[in-house]
Structure formats: structure tokens, C-alpha cells
């Protein structure tokens, strides 16, 4: 009786596993039959122009390091010269030495006073520009402390969206070549960038609306990283609408799921 029960259980288990394997294989086969359009996207960054303003705790820590460096440092040539001239002046007043008047024509103290006067007249360039005041999101002269990312307006279906520049892959191209061509088509030759590597740094996938799925189910976008060159000009193509946005602004502009993918490779 036990043998019959065990064989029944074994047969039922085999039948269940066979049906489960067949059920699991069906969706996989369906996905394999799906066709996806391949796109290459480009992350174009304008790196910070000036150093970021220190937070209060950072400024306090820097002040402590500067004080430690000052206490442990050796005297400079200027400080040694001041001490020597001070000793010579005391000896000269006491009549113990006789120095040529030319030797004390311009002392170290005179130089220091001239340097301090010149420094007092110096005014550093402002960290905020006219583009910041106007909130000109097409200007590269805004948010000098932060990294800006290029977005261009693109039409997906019947609606237009601001996205990272992306273009459809052509047969015979590498994905890197598609990214370079796409950027040139959108931005022209004036925008000079440096691409980092031949491998994509990010990926995003989305499905087309059901009424728009003629040949492909959706698009798979492979993103490549590039950085704007220092001497590069802005986009000269008047037909393209574009924006240079900080990471906080990207979060507000981009669709949530798209931003989540993009934010994975933003520094």
C-alpha cells in the first residue's frame, strides 16, 4: 500500500513539473518573438566652471586645516627678510651699523603694504550671472557651480518631450557611431564634446502605445557619456528646442520612470 501511495505521489509530481515547465516556457517564447527598436542616447554634460561654495561644516574644517598648516609650516623668504630688516633697523637706530640708504629704499614691509592695498582693490567675479537672474535655461553661463545636462525636444508618438538626445540605430553602425551621429544631427558641428568609452553607461526600455505598434513592440535606448569641451560653443541649430538643466531641474522635467533610469548614471 505504501509503495502504491508513493508511486502516485511521484507521478503527480512529475505531471505538475512538466506542466509548470511548459507554462514557464510560453511567455519566454512570446518575448523572444517581440521586436524592439534600438536607439543610442547621449548624456552631454557641462562640468562645473567654478568650485562649489563650501557648506558651513566644510568651511570650518578648512579653517582648521589652514591653521594646522600655518602652525607647522616654515617661515617664508618674505618673513625672514622682514625679521632681518627689523634687526638692521634697530641696530641702525642704535648707531651700531651704517647702511647705505639704497638698501632700505623698499623694505619688505613696503612690499607687503603694496600687496595688501592691491588685494583690497580686487573684486572677484560674481558666482551668479545674468543668465541666472533671467533663468535662461538655454544658456551655458548659468549655475556655474553645478553640472548641466543637455535635453532636446523630441516627438514620441503624438506628444513632444524633453529627453536626452537619442537616435535610431542604422545597420552597419556601432552604437557609439549612432550616438555621435545623433548628437551631430541635433546640435550641429558647433557643439564639441568628448565621448568617454565605447560601452554604454545606462539603459532604458519603453513600449509603444498599442495603436502604434506596427513592426516593433517598443524601444531600447543605450546611453553614452560625453562631456562638453571648454572651447565649445552652444547649439547653433535654431530648429531644435533644447535646455541645459541641473540634476534637480532634471528631476522636475523628466518623466519619473525615465529620470530613475537616467539618475543611475548621473554623478
Automatic annotation (TrEMBL):
Keywords: Mitochondrion, Ribonucleoprotein, Ribosomal protein, Transit peptide
GO CC, alphabetical: mitochondrial inner membrane; mitochondrial large ribosomal subunit
Classification via Pfam families: MRP-L46, NUDIX
InterPro entries: NUDIX_hydrolase-like_dom_sf (IPR015797), NUDIX_hydrolase_dom (IPR000086), Ribosomal_mL46 (IPR040008), Ribosomal_mL46_N (IPR021757), Ribosomal_mL46_NUDIX (IPR033650)
Principal cellular location given in the protein's record: mitochondrion
Positions of the Nudix hydrolase domain: 146-262
Large ribosomal subunit protein mL46 N-terminal domain location: 36-132
UniProt xrefs under Gene3D superfamilies: Nucleoside Triphosphate Pyrophosphohydrolase (3.90.79.10)
Compartment list: Mitochondrion
Superkingdom of origin: Eukaryota
GO molecular function, one term: structural constituent of ribosome
Family designation: Belongs to the mitochondrion-specific ribosomal protein mL46 family.
PANTHER family: 39S RIBOSOMAL PROTEIN L46, MITOCHONDRIAL PRECURSOR-RELATED, LARGE RIBOSOMAL SUBUNIT PROTEIN ML46
Name under which the protein is recorded: Large ribosomal subunit protein mL46
Organism: Anopheles culicifacies
Amino acid at each position: 500500500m505504501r509503495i502504491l501511495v508513493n508511486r502516485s505521489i511521484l507521478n503527480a509530481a512529475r505531471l505538475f513539473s512538466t506542466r509548470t515547465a511548459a507554462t514557464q516556457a510560453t511567455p519566454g517564447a512570446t518575448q523572444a518573438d517581440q521586436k524592439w527598436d534600438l536607439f543610442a542616447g547621449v548624456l552631454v554634460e557641462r562640468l562645473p566652471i567654478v568650485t562649489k561654495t563650501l557648506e558651513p561644516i566644510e568651511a570650518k574644517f578648512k579653517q582648521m586645516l589652514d591653521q594646522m598648516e600655518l602652525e607647522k609650516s616654515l617661515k617664508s623668504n618674505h618673513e625672514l627678510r622682514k625679521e632681518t630688516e627689523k634687526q638692521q633697523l634697530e641696530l641702525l637706530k642704535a648707531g651700531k651699523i651704517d647702511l647705505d640708504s639704497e638698501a632700505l629704499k623698499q623694505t619688505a614691509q613696503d612690499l607687503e603694504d603694496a600687496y595688501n592695498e592691491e588685494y583690497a582693490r580686487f573684486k572677484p567675479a560674481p558666482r551668479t550671472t545674468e543668465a541666472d537672474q533671467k533663468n535662461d535655461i538655454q544658456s551655458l553661463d548659468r549655475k556655474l557651480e553645478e553640472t548641466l545636462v543637455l535635453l532636446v525636444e523630441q516627438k514620441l508618438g503624438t506628444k513632444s518631450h524633453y529627453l536626452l538626445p537619442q537616435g535610431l540605430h542604422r545597420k552597419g553602425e556601432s552604437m557609439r557611431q549612432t550616438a555621435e551621429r545623433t548628437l551631430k544631427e541635433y546640435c550641429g558641428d558647433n557643439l564639441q564634446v568628448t565621448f568617454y568609452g565605447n560601452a554604454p553607461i545606462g539603459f532604458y526600455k519603453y513600449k509603444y502605445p498599442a495603436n502604434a505598434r506596427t513592426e516593433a513592440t517598443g524601444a531600447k535606448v543605450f546611453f553614452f557619456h560625453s562631456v562638453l569641451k571648454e572651447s565649445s560653443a552652444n547649439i547653433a541649430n535654431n530648429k531644435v528646442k533644447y535646455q541645459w538643466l541641473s540634476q534637480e531641474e532634471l528631476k522636475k522635467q523628466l518623466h519619473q520612470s525615465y529620470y530613475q533610469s537616467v539618475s543611475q548614471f548621473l554623478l
